[in-house]
């Protein structure tokens, strides 16, 4: 009893130790909180660009190209990957548009995080998570293998399916978290002679997404719906309601701008990814 | 001979590779797809555990055999590819040794976040291992590196310098005298450690050899030196230096050789490495190196040096010490147990961390919780085999993983199991039946394919609801205005055709409302089902049907005779989709059912999907879904959820996982 009283007294006395402790706490707590909250809010992270697309489209190859300037050999990815890249000399980040040419910050190359995700059907949740839970996300590059997109090809169907799902998630996203999100459809492997030109990639994807959209609306319901387990989902129609054909321009209504441009990571004449670099630099 | 050896990350980047013959990247891709992503290898569940390559089942693809091992912590995969025709007994050892060496050398670099770049100059280490193991593979002694510190100086005594290079087998053992008792040998090693590079980068060792001889630095320092020296080599320069070095070497050789005994022999025997590998260059290198190293040796060790080969020797030493320390570490961790104080302290810490998070999970932490998870899955009607494998997979995945802040072990397991279940149930490619049908019945003008009907056949054991589910699919197709032909291929069980006729009558009635058309094709009883199916498809093509739905006789999956007739059936009917109906109620049997049906169609053909019927009757116990998919890697296409024609659903993975993990 006595000891407790003593302790209490000691603690409440204006002793130098007590004071020092109090001051220390008062100083440390905000710092501590700041660290935790600031870190979790993702404000400290670099601006990021997400690479998605079906397996084998060249995402990892492109990532290594952006990182090192030449591509590394790659195989199917199983886990996502984020690397720090910097814009190459000669490009300027979009946010630097109004800076003076002599501004010293121009000297330092703008850094960003490039995030690669596995394209395998079973592993797409990594990509989806990055979209639904974005960390300073500035843009999405959807890579497609332009050499496999000819009409009637199974790859075209699979690619359109994935793209449809991604666009639908973007359409239904929480606008407060993610205001606008540009998407670049990068038609890769232009070095192959079977590759479709970018304009054709665009039109065949649009046509195929139209089919996906129709078939989804006519398809069976998902298990759980209407069985009292899950409430009915809200409307899953991509793009403009009642439109007969899907066009990427319909996504603008949802602040998602879609661009298509071609390029190649490998190839006889070296890589040609300037357009994609330019696109990336404009988003930063 | 090896075709290729690759070191790659789970993120898909190849860090280092060496190939002796071109190998299509698809070979390793299919290893990744089948073994790591889809986990198709049923036997030897080694995936995710960092075990020796010998314990991982070899993967065969397209005339190639792949031996592999992983390092989960760093996300690394080591793969050796060779022709299946060859029998290379040493490949397992090679893969394991390379793994050990690579991690030791570059482990720190691999942990760096946000980069894929690993500065590695690994060729020399790899070549050293290749030569060594190939040699031991040829000879009988393949004990290296289990007995690294035997065979000491006694072996070298008596081999005179004038003798021809020793036989290759000897070499496999002799590099191991790092810790030789002989002081001169030790000194020698030290001297040579100032310089380590391999013979193919001559300029490199010239440069480093001239460094001050205090080469007692740590292995790490030597590593750095090595990396630098490998860089320094460049063709032109090296040639001139070799020439110069040669001049200096020859004349000094004579003086030195008679001066020393044992040490000389020692280095002499080392020669056989390069002598065996590349006889022509070794001479040149030998003399060149002597010249270079002379500077060092004369200052410090007098005239103790023999001729050359320190470089190789030192590389050997380094590699051996890496391998040896890895071995001893393994033994240590197996043998040591922390004292009572230590363990109780760590137990308290463990309890604390259990609440706060940041705990590194061990097998003991997980065991009990995993048992609980297994029982939970069994209660959900997951077959024991599938439940055990799922839990093993999750356990392997979690061992060594740190829990997040304020995350309990239980929660960690729960979320890992959720991920694991979703991964299993998620199909590899999207299953959009309507679009697939459209692609077949109205092929694009470019694709040169003729229009033909889309054929679906339904199989399954007796009484699971084949005809009912077939009718449900038909109703769905009618709603989408297709012209459907239903074929009665159950020519076996009396009443089957009539039952189907009733369904068709109902569907016709519905079709008049919904649109679409439906007809029944039947040839009575006793006919061969395969022939009936074939005729029906021909008929449907002529009559311009869109979809052919074939109902087959129910059969026990262990009825050899009936099961074997399925192969002929698949060949004759050429179905686009073979769907198997399984009952949600079935328990342990589900695995065997799925497996037997999946293999019944002969090689090159398997099931395309499951329809799991009567899901409405089992509540949360939808374990059959998992069991069947787990046994075959065939996705679930539809689930039946009621008595009506409209009670057919796509499988929602989220829904299924939620049900499987819900507790009650
Ligand atoms: N011809 C050609 N091949 C390319 C090009 N870009 C990538 N490839 C090849 O495409 C293959 C697949 O590339 P990856 O980068 O591994 O594909 P990915 O998109 O990462 O695939 P996942 O990791 O499975 O999702 C590799 O063999 C590349 O060499 C290109 O521009 N032209
Ligand atoms: Mg990849």
TrEMBL record, chain A:
Q: Where is the AAA+ ATPase domain?
A: 45-213
The record's annotation in InterPro entries points to: AAA+_ATPase, P-loop_NTPase, SRP_receptor_beta_su
Give the matching SMART domains: AAA
Major subcellular site:
endoplasmic reticulum
Q: Which Gene3D superfamilies does this one have?
A: P-loop containing nucleotide triphosphate hydrolases
Q: Where are the transmembrane segments?
A: 17-38
Q: What keywords tag this UniProt record?
A: Endoplasmic reticulum, GTP-binding, Membrane, Nucleotide-binding, Receptor, Transmembrane, Transmembrane helix
What are the subcellular locations of this protein?
A: Endoplasmic reticulum membrane
Q: What is this protein called?
A: Signal recognition particle receptor subunit beta
Q: Which organism is it from?
A: Oidiodendron maius (strain Zn)
Give the source lineage, highest ranks first.
Eukaryota, Fungi, Dikarya, Ascomycota, Pezizomycotina
TrEMBL record, chain B:
**What UniProt keywords are attached to this protein's entry?**
Endoplasmic reticulum, GTP-binding, Membrane, Nucleotide-binding, Receptor
Entry's Gene Ontology BP terms: intracellular protein transport; SRP-dependent cotranslational protein targeting to membrane
The text of the family note is: Belongs to the GTP-binding SRP family.
According to the UniProt entry, which residue ranges have a biased composition of type Low complexity?
224-233
Q: Which SMART domains match?
A: AAA, SRP54, SRP54_N
Q: Where is this region: Disordered?
A: 158-268
The taxonomy runs:
Eukaryota, Fungi, Dikarya, Ascomycota, Pezizomycotina
Oligomeric state and interaction partners are given as: Heterodimer of an alpha and a beta chain.
GO molecular function terms noted in the UniProt entry: GTP binding; GTPase activity; signal recognition particle binding
Where is the protein found, in the record's own terms?
Answer: Endoplasmic reticulum membrane
Source species, please? Oidiodendron maius (strain Zn)
Q: How does it sit in the membrane?
A: Peripheral membrane protein
Comp. bias intervals (Polar residues): 174-200
What is this protein identified as? Signal recognition particle receptor subunit alpha homolog
């Amino acid at each position: 009893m006595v000891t407790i009283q003593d302790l209490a007294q000691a603690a409440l006395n204006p002793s130098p130790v007590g004071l020092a402790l109090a001051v220390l706490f008062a100083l440390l707590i905000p710092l501590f909180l700041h660290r935790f909250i600031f870190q979790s809010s993702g404000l400290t992270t670099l601006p990021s660009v997400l690479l998605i697309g079906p397996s084998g489209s060249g995402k990892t190859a492109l990532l290594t190209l952006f990182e090192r300037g030449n591509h590394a050999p790659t195989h199917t990815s199983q886990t996502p990957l984020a690397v720090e890249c910097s814009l190459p000399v000669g490009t300027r980040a979009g946010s630097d548009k109004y800076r003076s040419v002599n501004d010293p910050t121009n000297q330092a190359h703008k850094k960003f995080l490039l995030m690669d995700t596995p394209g395998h059907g079973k592993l797409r949740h990594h990509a989806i998570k990055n979209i639904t839970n974005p960390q300073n996300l500035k843009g999405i590059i959807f890579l497609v293998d332009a050499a496999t997109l000819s009409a009637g090809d199974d790859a075209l169907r699979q690619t359109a399916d994935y793209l449809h799902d991604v666009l639908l998630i973007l359409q239904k996203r929480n606008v407060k978290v993610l205001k606008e999100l540009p998407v670049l459809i990068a038609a890769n492997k232009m070095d192959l002679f079977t590759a479709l030109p970018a304009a054709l990639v665009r039109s065949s994807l649009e046509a195929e997404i139209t089919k996906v959209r129709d078939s989804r609306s006519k398809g069976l319901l998902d298990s759980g719906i209407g069985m009292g387990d899950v409430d009915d989902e809200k409307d899953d129609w991509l793009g403009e309601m009642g439109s007969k054909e899907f066009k990427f321009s319909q996504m603008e209504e949802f602040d998602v701008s879609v661009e298509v441009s071609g390029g190649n990571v490998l190839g006889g004449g070296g890589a040609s990814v300037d357009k994609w670099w330019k696109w990336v630099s404009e988003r930063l | 001979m090896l075709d290729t050896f690759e070191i790659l990350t789970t993120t898909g980047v190849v860090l280092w590779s060496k190939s002796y013959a071109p190998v299509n990247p698809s070979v390793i891709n299919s290893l990744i797809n089948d073994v790591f992503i889809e986990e198709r290898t049923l036997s030897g569940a080694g995936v995710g555990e960092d075990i020796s390559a010998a314990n991982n089942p070899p993967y065969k693809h397209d005339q190639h055999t792949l031996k592999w091992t992983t390092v989960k912590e760093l996300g690394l995969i080591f793969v050796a590819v060779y022709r299946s025709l060859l029998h290379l007994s040493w490949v397992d050892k090679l893969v394991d040794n390379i793994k050990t060496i690579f991690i030791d050398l570059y482990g720190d670099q691999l942990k760096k976040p946000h980069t894929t770049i690993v500065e590695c100059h690994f060729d020399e280490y790899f070549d050293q291992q290749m030569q060594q193991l190939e040699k031991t593979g040829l000879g009988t002694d393949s004990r290296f590196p289990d007995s690294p510190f035997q065979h000491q100086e006694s072996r070298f005594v008596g081999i005179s310098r004038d003798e021809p290079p020793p036989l290759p087998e000897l070499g496999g053992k002799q590099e191991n005298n790092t810790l030789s008792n002989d002081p001169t040998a030790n000194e020698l090693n030290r001297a040579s450690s100032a310089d380590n590079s391999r013979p193919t980068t001559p300029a490199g060792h010239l440069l480093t050899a001239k460094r001050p001889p205090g080469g007692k630095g740590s292995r790490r320092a030597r590593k750095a030196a090595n990396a630098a020296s490998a860089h320094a080599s460049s063709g032109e320069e090296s040639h001139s230096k070799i020439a110069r070095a040669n001049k200096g070497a020859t004349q000094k050789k004579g003086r030195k050789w008679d001066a020393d005994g044992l040490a000389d022999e020692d280095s002499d025997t080392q020669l056989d490495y390069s002598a065996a590998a590349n006889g022509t260059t070794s001479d040149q290198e030998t003399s060149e190196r002597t010249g270079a190293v002379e500077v060092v040796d004369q200052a410090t060790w007098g005239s103790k040096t023999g001729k050359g080969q320190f470089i190789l020797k030192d590389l050997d030493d380094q590699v051996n010490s890496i391998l040896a320390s890895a071995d001893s570490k393994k033994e240590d961790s197996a043998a040591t147990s922390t004292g009572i104080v230590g363990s109780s302290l760590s137990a308290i810490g463990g309890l604390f961390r259990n609440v706060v998070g940041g705990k590194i999970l061990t097998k003991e932490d997980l065991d009990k919780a995993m048992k609980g998870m297994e029982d939970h899955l069994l209660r959900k009607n997951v077959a024991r085999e599938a439940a055990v494998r799922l839990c093993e997979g999750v356990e392997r995945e979690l061992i060594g993983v740190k829990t997040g802040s304020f995350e309990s072990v239980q929660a960690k397991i729960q979320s890992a199991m959720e991920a694991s279940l979703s991964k299993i149930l998620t199909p590899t490619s999207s299953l959009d039946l309507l679009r697939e049908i459209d692609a077949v019945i109205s092929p694009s003008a470019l694709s040169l394919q003729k229009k033909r009907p889309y054929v679906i056949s339904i199989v399954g054991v007796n009484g699971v609801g084949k005809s009912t589910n077939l009718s449900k699919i038909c109703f769905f197709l009618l709603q989408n205005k297709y012209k459907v032909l239903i074929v009665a291929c159950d020519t076996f069980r009396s009443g089957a055709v009539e039952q189907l006729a009733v369904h068709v009558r109902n569907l016709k009635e519905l079709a008049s409302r919904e649109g679409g058309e439906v007809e029944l094709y039947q040839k009575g009883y006793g006919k061969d089902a395969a022939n009936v199916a074939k005729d029906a498809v021909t008929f449907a093509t002529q009559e311009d049907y869109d979809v052919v739905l074939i109902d087959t006789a129910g059969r026990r999956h262990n009825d050899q005779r009936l099961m074997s007739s399925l192969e002929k059936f698949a060949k004759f009917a050429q179905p686009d989709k073979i769907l198997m109906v399984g009952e949600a109620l079935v328990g342990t049997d589900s695995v065997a059912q799925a497996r037997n049906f999946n293999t019944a169609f002969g090689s090159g053909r398997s099931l395309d999907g499951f329809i799991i019927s009567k899901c409405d009757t089992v509540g949360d116990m939808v374990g059959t879904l998992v069991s069947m998919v787990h046994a075959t890697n065939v996705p679930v296409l539809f689930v039946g959820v009621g008595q009506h024609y409209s009670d057919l659903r796509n499988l929602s993975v989220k829904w299924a996982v939620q049900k499987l993990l819900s507790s009650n």
